[in-house]
Amino acid sequence: MFSVTVRDHMMIAHSFRGEVFGPAQRLHGATYVVDATFRRTALDADDIVVDIGRAAEVLHEVLAELNYRNLDDQPELAGVNTSTEALAQVVADRLADRVQAGALGDGAQGLEGLVVTLHESHIAWASYERQL
Amino acid sequence: MFSVTVRDHMMIAHSFRGEVFGPAQRLHGATYVVDATFRRTALDADDIVVDIGRAAEVLHEVLAELNYRNLDDQPELAGVNTSTEALAQVVADRLADRVQAGALGDGAQGLEGLVVTLHESHIAWASYERQL
Amino acid sequence: MFSVTVRDHMMIAHSFRGEVFGPAQRLHGATYVVDATFRRTALDADDIVVDIGRAAEVLHEVLAELNYRNLDDQPELAGVNTSTEALAQVVADRLADRVQAGALGDGAQGLEGLVVTLHESHIAWASYERQL
Amino acid sequence: MFSVTVRDHMMIAHSFRGEVFGPAQRLHGATYVVDATFRRTALDADDIVVDIGRAAEVLHEVLAELNYRNLDDQPELAGVNTSTEALAQVVADRLADRVQAGALGDGAQGLEGLVVTLHESHIAWASYERQL
Amino acid sequence: MFSVTVRDHMMIAHSFRGEVFGPAQRLHGATYVVDATFRRTALDADDIVVDIGRAAEVLHEVLAELNYRNLDDQPELAGVNTSTEALAQVVADRLADRVQAGALGDGAQGLEGLVVTLHESHIAWASYERQL
Amino acid sequence: MFSVTVRDHMMIAHSFRGEVFGPAQRLHGATYVVDATFRRTALDADDIVVDIGRAAEVLHEVLAELNYRNLDDQPELAGVNTSTEALAQVVADRLADRVQAGALGDGAQGLEGLVVTLHESHIAWASYERQL
């Protein structure tokens, strides 16, 4: 199994609902350093998993929809706690939609899996893994 | 599949028995930077894998039992080489005991797996992965 | 010249005023991984620059005043853009006040300088350096 | 499941064939920071996955065959784009050959899997995973 | 004293002349992860050292002149060993030229110093520091 | 001003004397990831600060004298707390002796300064800086 990972980041504000979150129920924020990993069993005709440049662009586009925003105001995220792990799924699902729409080219149709990891600090991070 | 990871560290002395260890048969020591990863298929009612704050506390408690000690003197580790990989299992099993005893709350009963990684330097680390 | 550095972090929301900031004029947020470096010419009677444990506690206390908050609502920060570099000075000055008030013990009266670095992402950070 | 990882690096020149590679079709180069992960279900008689020192030596030998070279001139790599992911497989397969030839000792016959990750920069890396 | 640092990278081929370089006399390559640090005594009217976005763009432009190239073929580098430290000076001097030409805006005229660090691997890096 | 840094590590046991050290008064240990930085105003005739390969070898030799040892048993360290900052000076002074004895070659006689940083964990490190 092969994989390629690209890294980018986003800076957002948000708050959480629920006693378990303690002081994080207040409006605060985070830098998420985001790693997107693309997986496939065999390389394509160019000997790659995916074009790293295009993968980085698509990740940047997905993060741009959330970057420099207060996630509490995003209608599509209403009613969910935008925890690091929940946001990992949001980013992964949006990346998957773009892969399936052809944003990474025809060769990328051979991609089989995707992992998105969001690092919220030097001591905590979360991931979501799904098939493509 | 979702996961959340928290990081902490411990500083211990120990020695190894067996020619394969060369100079590490002498009493020496290590800082282990420890990553504990908790996994589950679906998020809980708060949209999280586990409360990161509580996970960090439980990891800290487990490491406190070993921290600032000479592992050669710990009765429960007698007769085993406390290699990085063997210690990863010790930490993982102690974390699993605490999860099963409820230390991470009721929501954490949905946890399915656990990975513990101990970084012994910038060029070597070891992991142990188990089910919950 | 000797130095000791301890690392912690904080997660805040804020916004900026001024066209130069582009989309960062919107309410967003950041995780700042914060390094505080203490400097002195000679070690104290215990052969240290400062007690690392106490230095870490004092840094944690200073960051707790800002952590999990919207900095736009902090009266003492009104009228200033809380850029990474401006916040580095805020943290450094508050640390200096505590050092001078004796929070790091008598031995720490020999400290001569302080550097605070805030990492806002894997590709950008800022520092402020001052005397003690 | 246990694993042990060792890290080393190599510095090579190469070029790519195919429009997808854009400016990387020109002769350029890379530092690859290489992580080799060895996996097995149970520890050996010395309570380890593999001797870390020997694993590091074998990885160093494999990388020495490629280090400080122009990969475009390596006969055994002719006709393939030496992408980060393709090189991860080259390194993994050569490591596997050495493990099977006994370079890591008899205890290492219990190894079950191998992952090789090549970091090409702070924002991109690739892996190849195989059985042993 | 305040500073702001931005990080980017470039991937180049080159070779060295001189016995001291051993196998690095062969054509090989490197990824340089490049940190550019801008320093000044006081913040500007926007409470910043320099606009991080513009600083990142200018660094990217300077690196683009070298990226994906064989430095042995660059006329302006003829006759010099493009060691990590020598390249740090090349990047710093080109950044300084752009700052002085106004590429970072009028506020950046207050910049006083510049440090460029090139990381060639996880175990070696080099810097060049100069005034502005 | 130019600088070159090389990184290595050592794994030692030790204990501290003095109430300020709390549980670190017990025999424990540490991995120190060690960075040695060499500085000079102008490059040598080979366009380098120092031969990185030789610098790495000399650092490795100095660390080998301490590696895999209980520092409490080292006669030359008797009566001093081997704090991270105190050890940084030990390593720096031993490096300086070797530089002055010619271990880095004639070109290295132009070196002017030296900084040694010991990282004891992901959240604490210490440095010692001196002239050559």
Explain what this protein looks like in three dimensions.
The structure is a homohexamer of 132-residue chains. By secondary structure, chain A is an alpha+beta fold. Chain A is 23% helix and 33% strand. Chain A has two helices and four strands; from the N terminus they run ββααββ. Chain A has helices spanning 52-64, 84-100; strands spanning 2-14, 28-40, 113-121, 124-131. Chain A has a four-stranded antiparallel sheet with strand order 1-2-3-4, covered by helices on one side. In chain A, α1 (52-64) crosses α2. The radius of gyration of chain A is 16 Å and the shape is elongated. Chain A starts with a strand and ends with a strand. The model of chain A has no long low-confidence stretch (mean pLDDT 97). Chains in contact: A-B, A-C, A-D, B-D, B-F, C-E, C-F, D-E, E-F. At the A-D interface, β1 and α1 of A face α2 and β4 of D.
Low-pLDDT runs of 5+ residues of chain A are none
Strand content of chain A: 25-35%
How would you state the average pLDDT of chain A, rounded? 97
Distance between the termini of chain A: 14 Å
What's the tally of helices of chain A? 2
What's the helical proportion of residues of chain A? 10-25%
User: What is the SS-derived class of chain A?
Assistant: alpha+beta
